[in-house]
Amino acid sequence: MNTLPHEKEIKEYVKTIDHLRKKSENNPIFAGEIQRLERKLESLRKDIYSNLTPWQRVQICRHRNRPHSIDYIQHMFSDFEELSGDRLFANDQAIVGGFAQLGDMKCLVIGQECGRDTDDRIKRNFGMMQPEGYRKALRLMKLAEKFHLPVISLIDTKGAFPGLEAEQRGQGWAIAHNLREMSRIETPIICVVIGEGCSGGALGIGVGDSIGMLEHAYYSVISPEGCASILWKDASKNVEAAAALKLNSENLLEFDIIDEVLSEPLGGAHHHPQTVYQNVRQFVEGQWDILKRLPPHILLEQRYNKYRKIGQLTTQSHFTSSPL
Q1: What gap in Å lies between CA 170 and CA 144, rounded to an integer?
Q2: DSSP string spanning 166-197?
Q3: What predicted TM-score, i.e. pTM, was given to this entire model?
Q4: Within a 13 Å sphere around the CA of 143, how many CA atoms are in the beta-carbon half?
Q5: Pick from 307, 128, 296: which is nearest to 201 by CA?
Q6: Which of 20, 49, 70, 282 is deepest in the core (most CB within 10 A)?
Q7: Each residue's pLDDT tens digit, 223-270
Q8: Whole-angstrom distance, CA of residue 190 vs CA of residue 144
Q9: Cα angle 61-64-68, degrees, rounded to a multiple of 5
């Protein structure tokens, strides 16, 4: 298991407890010591995980064992029928989508997929979509609209692919086109930020009626490393950048950018994925129960107003009145 820097002390306790358990198989003398260490371990976990910095939470979000979109599709949905291609250029493997069923709800699910091992990551371009990926996502959402099915969008990307070939094929236009068209789709769109949500790469499939976000996911205009490189010309300032960006779920809830924070098990989603699948499912089904009652024109009006009201503006005068 990949151990994060803030979990090293926890790992040492776990190793000690495991060692004592092996020693005590035929000798109950260690039982009391094991129980004492287990109580200390539980207290240590609660202390560490309740005082995480923004950067430490980004590290949890990037944990190699954190559930990906494919895991959510596999464990939450049934009868998934994958659809491929944008009908213009290619099938972008960085996005997975198709018709599925969630309980009694028939829907269309799309999700950004980073891949697991090296070969899979390369095939999926590390979850960074190209123009054909955004066209593919929009094509599937239009199908959902045609058949009056809700769209479930799972967001998890470091950003849109920044390569020359993507720019030559109209990367910026593809994202902008999705933003406009998603605001007009006459069927409910429920978005969930399950991992990294960076820049237009995330927003290109993130315009919805309701947005949920996992507790240790992050959603930002840029990654902490990218922000540090621009502001301080030093990517090692990522810790300061993560704090300044206000990219954690509670920050975004305060700014009305998301609608609900979905809790994760102690230490992150990778510690108990089934709990996270259940929390995401409850959010999606709860939102669907609300949104399915709205006629299309009300749905679109509320979606429009939602994005018009996002954010908070603070004005401050830089001038002071001079004494008379």
Answers
A1: 25
A2: HHHTTHHHHHHHHHHHHTT-SS-EEEEEEEEE
A3: 0.91
A4: 19
A5: 128
A6: 49
A7: 999 999 999 999 889 999 999 999 999 999 999 999 999 999 999 999
A8: 13
A9: 70
Give, rounded to a whole angstrom, the gap between the first and last alpha carbons of the chain.
70
What CATH number belongs to 66-308? 3.90.226.10
- Total residues found in the chain within this entry: 324
Judging by DSSP bridges, how do beta strands 95-102 and 151-157 pair with one another? unpaired
Strands 78-82 and 260-262: unpaired
Q: Tell me the torsion sign for CA atoms 183, 186, 188, 193.
A: negative
Residue type (1 letter), 307 = Y
Which residues are registered as beta bridge partners of 214? 262
Between CA 115 and CA 119, with CA 117 as vertex, the angle to 5 degrees is 85
Q: What is the CA radius of gyration of the chain?
A: 22
pLDDT in tens, 34-86: 788 888 888 888 999 989 999 999 999 999 999 999 999 999 999 999 999 99
User: What's the burial of 41, exposed, middle or buried (CB within 10 Å: 0-12/13-18/19+)?
Assistant: middle
Helices (H), 31-113: 31-49, 54-61, 69-76
β-pairing verdict for 95-102 and 78-82: antiparallel
Identity (one letter) of the amino acid at 317? S
Q: Domain residue spans in the chain?
A: 7-51, 66-308
Read off the amino acid at residue 156. D
CB-based burial label for 60 (10 Å; 0-12, 13-18, 19+) = buried
Q: Dihedral sign, CA of 107, 112, 117, 121?
A: positive
d(CA 312, CA 302) in angstroms, rounded, equals: 19
